[in-house]
């Protein structure tokens, strides 16, 4: 019985080997010179496309596409282990790799030869928005720069850099949309461009470090608004750009407590610096400021006003807690300016505490400004 079983087993193995051998031989003999007849998207294989974006799925259609040895888009090698290959179609994802040489071609090599087809790949730009938490962070602070495609441009600790007004800082960590770095010492005074660079390119921030475009309230100096007693150069919290507004008092329920306020005719008003387009098209702009809540703003109500008068445009700012750190607050301008009107002489502006509940306030404000959206 053992001899018969061994003989059957041996015969079966030989039969399978023969079948595989014939199959491979037939496969190879059936693959002639490859031809690409169409490149399509994975969603619509019936329509040819001339180009695509990195990360898109495409289908290379044709015949004799078997026995693939290599596949390149521009000079970037496609990982064949991640592609689905048949003799008539190859489905793949355009690699997220910036080419060194751009040919706008697919190059396919099989055992039967090499064939090319046109494909223009769009390379997305390296986008830099600015600092994530505090756009006025002090030198020495660890910060996060937000953007997109940092991985694509190889912004790495080994090859990447962040420059603040031309002063370089190292990349501590990076991902697709974030770069962690430390604000360097010696940055020139005034707004400083944030430039992030990698192996394959660089990008400049939409919002520069210490952005002071259309700065409305900086407290440097106080220019005449109501509430001058709140302006201080104190060290608790630490100043981020000179004087700031510090509200440290108990505010009673429905007490009328104006911290900043004034019409456009207040001496020195900087509200005339707001671009006319911002008041005509407030949906395209942001109202920003830095805040530090040493105690949470968790009761009462802060009302922000900017517009023609003290009633037309008011925003109720939700309760907020920065946990004792300076943080940048960004509000769509159209949520404040509800009646767009242009006045070259400036506008009424106010930060007002007026709401339900007693608040043990200990919070600071600085750098109130209006800037374009990215």
From TrEMBL:
<keyword id="KW-0732">Signal</keyword>
<dbReference type="InterPro" id="IPR014756">
    <property type="entry name" value="Ig_E-set"/>
</dbReference>
<feature type="domain" description="Surface glycan-binding protein B xyloglucan binding">
    <location>
        <begin position="209"/>
        <end position="372"/>
    </location>
</feature>
<protein>
    <submittedName>
        <fullName>IPT/TIG domain-containing protein</fullName>
    </submittedName>
</protein>
<feature type="signal peptide">
    <location>
        <begin position="1"/>
        <end position="25"/>
    </location>
</feature>
<dbReference type="GO" id="GO:0030247">
    <property type="term" value="F:polysaccharide binding"/>
</dbReference>
<dbReference type="InterPro" id="IPR002909">
    <property type="entry name" value="IPT_dom"/>
</dbReference>
<dbReference type="InterPro" id="IPR013783">
    <property type="entry name" value="Ig-like_fold"/>
</dbReference>
<feature type="domain" description="IPT/TIG">
    <location>
        <begin position="140"/>
        <end position="197"/>
    </location>
</feature>
<dbReference type="Pfam" id="PF18329">
    <property type="entry name" value="SGBP_B_XBD"/>
</dbReference>
<dbReference type="Pfam" id="PF01833">
    <property type="entry name" value="TIG"/>
</dbReference>
<dbReference type="InterPro" id="IPR040475">
    <property type="entry name" value="SGBP_B_XBD"/>
</dbReference>
């Amino acid at each position: 019985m053992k001899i018969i079983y061994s003989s059957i087993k041996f015969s079966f193995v030989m039969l399978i080997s023969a079948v595989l051998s014939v199959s491979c031989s037939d496969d190879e003999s059936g693959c002639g010179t490859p031809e690409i007849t169409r490149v399509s998207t994975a969603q619509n294989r019936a329509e040819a496309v001339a180009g695509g974006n990195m990360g898109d799925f495409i289908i290379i259609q044709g015949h004799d596409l078997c026995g693939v040895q290599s596949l390149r888009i521009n000079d970037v090698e496609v990982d064949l282990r991640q592609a689905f290959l048949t003799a008539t179609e190859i489905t793949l994802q355009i690699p997220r790799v910036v080419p060194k040489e751009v040919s706008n071609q697919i190059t396919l090599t099989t055992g039967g030869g090499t064939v090319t087809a046109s494909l223009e790949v769009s390379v997305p730009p390296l986008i830099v928005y600015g600092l994530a938490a505090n756009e006025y962070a002090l030198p020495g602070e660890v910060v996060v720069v937000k953007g997109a495609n940092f991985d694509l441009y190889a912004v790495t600790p080994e090859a990447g850099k962040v420059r603040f007004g031309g002063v370089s800082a190292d990349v501590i960590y990076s991902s697709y949309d974030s770069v962690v770095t430390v604000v360097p010492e010696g940055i020139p005074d005034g707004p400083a461009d944030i430039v992030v660079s990698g192996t394959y390119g660089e990008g400049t921030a939409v919002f520069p470090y210490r952005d002071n475009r259309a700065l409305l309230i900086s407290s440097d100096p106080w220019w005449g608004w109501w509430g001058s007693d709140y302006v201080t150069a104190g060290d608790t919290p630490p100043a981020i750009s000179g004087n700031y507004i510090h509200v440290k008092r108990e505010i009673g329920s429905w007490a009328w407590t104006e911290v900043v306020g004034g019409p456009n005719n207040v001496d020195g008003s900087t509200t005339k610096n707001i671009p006319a387009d911002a008041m005509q098209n407030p949906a395209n702009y942001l109202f920003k400021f830095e805040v530090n809540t040493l105690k949470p703003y968790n009761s009462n109500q802060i009302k922000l006003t900017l517009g023609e008068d003290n009633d037309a445009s008011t925003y109720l700012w939700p309760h907020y807690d920065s946990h004792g750190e300076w943080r940048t607050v960004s509000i769509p301008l159209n949520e404040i300016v509800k009646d767009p009107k242009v006045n070259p002489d400036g506008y009424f502006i106010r930060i007002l505490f007026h709401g339900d509940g007693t608040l043990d306030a200990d919070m600071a404000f600085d750098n109130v400004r209006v800037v374009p959206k990215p």
